[in-house]
C-alpha cells in the first residue's frame, strides 16, 4: 500500500475502505500516508473492527513524525460489541471490568493512541470508538483547534473516565456527538 503516494504530493485526504485491512491498518501504511506533506485527513472507513493481526504503532516513531494531520476518523460498526459478545457466546449478565475477551480493544487502543495523541496541537475533527480512545491521556493535553469530536460505541468499563476532563481542554469545540451505550446490566456512566 502507498507506493504510488509520492506521485500525489498535493493529496489532502485519504480514505482507506478496503477490506484487505479488515484486521486494522498496518503502521507502514499509515506512515506512508503521514509522509505526504499536505495530508490533513485520514478516514479509516470501515476497515474492520480491530487491530489484532498487526504490530502496535511505535509511539516514539509516531511522535517523531512531523505530520500535518488535523482530521482522523475511525468509525466502527455501531453494534460491534453486541456482535462480539454473541460471537463469544457471552450471554450471561455477569460482566467483568474490563472484559477478558475484549483483548482486541486493548490492541486497538495501543495502535490508535500514539496517533491520536500526536494530533493534540493540530486536530480539528476526531471520530473514534469510545472503547479504545485514550481519554485519560487526552484529558492531560491541550486541544486548541479541536472543533468536532465524536466518540461512539459502548463503554468498555463501568468506571469510564469523565469526558468533562477532556472537554475542559477543547476551547474551540463546537460539535460534540456521543452515540455511546452502556452494556446491558451495567450502571449509568456519568458523562458530565
**Terminus-to-terminus distance:** 42 Å
Percentage of β-strand residues: 5-15%
Share of residues in helices: 10-25%
Tell me the series of helices and strands, N- to C-terminal: EHEHEHHEHEHEE
Helix count from the secondary structure assignment: 6
Structural class estimated from helices and strands:
alpha/beta
How is the biggest beta sheet arranged? 7 strands, parallel
Outline type = globular
Task: Evaluate the radius of gyration.
Answer: 17 Å
Give start-end ranges of low-pLDDT stretches.
Answer: 91-95
State mean pLDDT (0 to 100 scale). Answer: 80
How many β-strands, per DSSP? 7
Please describe what this structure looks like.
By secondary structure, the protein is of the alpha/beta class. The protein has 6 helices and 7 strands, in the order E-H-E-H-E-H-H-E-H-E-H-E-E. Strands 1, 2, 3, 4, 5, 6 and 7 form a 7-stranded parallel beta sheet that branches. The chain is globular and about 50 Å long. It starts with 12 loop residues before the first strand and ends in an 11-residue tail after the last strand. The relative contact order is 0.13.
Comma- or semicolon-separated keywords:
alpha/beta; 192 residues; 7-stranded parallel β-sheet; single chain; globular
What is the structure about, briefly put?
Helices cover 24% and strands 14% of the residues. The chain contains six helices and seven strands.
